[in-house]
Amino acid sequence: MTTKIIVASGKRKSAIARAVVRTGSGKVTVNNKLLDYYEPQMARMKLQEPLLLAGENASKLDVDVEVSGGGIMGQAEAARLAMAKGMVAFLKDKKLEKAYLEYDRHLLVADVRRKEVRKPNRHGKARAATQKSYR
Prior knowledge:
The protein is an alpha+beta fold. The chain has a single domain, classed as 2-Layer Sandwich (Ribosomal Protein S5, domain 2), CATH 3.30.230. Helices cover 33% and strands 22% of the residues. It has helices at residues 41-54, 72-91, 94-103; strands at residues 5-12, 15-23, 28-30, 33-34, 61-68. A five-stranded mixed β-sheet has the order 1-2-5-3-4. Strand 3 (28-30) and strand 4 (33-34) form a beta hairpin. Helix 1 (41-54) runs parallel beside helix 2 (72-91). The mean pLDDT is 88.
């Protein structure tokens, strides 16, 4: 008998996450660390959002997330995107998809914003124009 496995990915800034969703007992790991022990707490809370919205369905699934690149919160947001996309694809549940979209659209749709590229002879973003040097 083959077990059903869904692989989903998520990106946020330069962080990339890959989530593997399979039937199980509700175990969630991020980079081989149980979600309960993931630090900092703010990032852990972000990662718990798709599980809380899924409710009873989340306790029937095992989710393994591998995330790399970027900072702590970028990684957390990439991981939650991958988890939510994977759970929706695994369960094929339109109600769950609608709940995710109503709660926060970025649970299923990647945030494509990136840091603006640095340009020469520009100073901090506090000033709109470049500074004149002939005063």
